[in-house]
Amino acid sequence: MDISEVHSLEEDRDRKDDENFDNELAVKRIQTANHDGVFGEITEKGPNYRNVGFVGTAVLMAKSQIGLGILSIPSAFNALGMVPGAICLLLISAITTWSGYVIGIFKLNHREVYGIDDAGGLMAGPIARWFLGAVFCIYWIFVSASGILGLSIGLNAVSSHGICTAGFAAIAAILGFSGSSIRTLGRITWLAWIGLPCILVAIMVVTIAVGVQDRPAAAPKDDLPWNSDFKIVGNPTFAEGMAGICNILFAFSGTPGFFAIVSEMRNPRQYTKALLICQAGVTSIYLVIACVVYYYCGSYVASPALGSAGGLVKKISYGFAIPGLIVTSTIVTHQSTSSSASYAVPAI
């Protein structure tokens, strides 16, 4: 065998080694793509927990916030005043936006994290994981309860108190529980697409109504011209001021659920863009709705705000809002059952 044949054999062997290496690398890439740090192997047979797209992420985040707190922001402005209320809203929005951004960065660096309980376990061990799991499970339970209460109020308004409030609360709980049993956020996304426009239409109906009506529903009924008594700067007691701030804070109560949303994204690197779109849109809507409704209603603004324009408008607005409130209850209840509940039981 001459030297050229030896070189030819060596080249063939090197080529085969390169091909084997490329094949092994391709297999590893496929395995990595199909493996998730939280959900393990993702196959066609099982549920796809990584199926939330970029737009769906923004809609889910927006719907997890818009729906409960926005209905009480105008009354918070009544306690704080127009300018302090707007400042508090913008500050809380900035804080929650930053915390949401940190959630995304943390998730990219620690793919095995699904919720705040996992983050606590990573930083401080299993006791912190169980403690935070229990705390946030309780937190989501109370948020879910608020959604159930809001939905029962809506059903009462539409039906003119057809049955007792407890009965409507039971119906609301069943609806929220049924929706939250859907296993993945990817399948819940289409509900958010329905719920978000519904709640926005309901809010716009009330906002337009209070602007064109002579006076809010709770204002004195007389022949004298009525002028809004809104305040640029309020003079609340400590309790009233803190209640107003808490109402605004509750409007951003969906932020802890962003951990679960980014965990189920197809491409978590798009999370920050979705977050900025969500927070910019949510903050703008909150600010405009709160300022307009409070400007026209003054101290006679109702809480929830959908009752500010009278009985007929209240029924119409709640008719639009009910699907949105159902979706809100579904999302926040799903957050509890999917992330924190499994750690809350051992902690207790």
UniProtKB/TrEMBL annotation:
Residues 1-20 are annotated as: Disordered. This is Amino acid transporter transmembrane domain-containing protein. Belongs to the amino acid/polyamine transporter 2 family. The chain crosses the membrane at residues 52-73, 79-106, 127-153, 159-178, 190-212, 241-262, 274-296, 316-333. Residues 1-18 have a biased composition (Basic and acidic residues). Its main location: membrane. It comes from the Eukaryota. It holds the Pfam family Aa_trans. It is a multi-pass membrane protein. It is found in: Membrane. Keywords: Membrane, Transmembrane, Transmembrane helix. Residues 56-312 form the Amino acid transporter transmembrane domain. One of its GO terms (cellular component) is membrane.
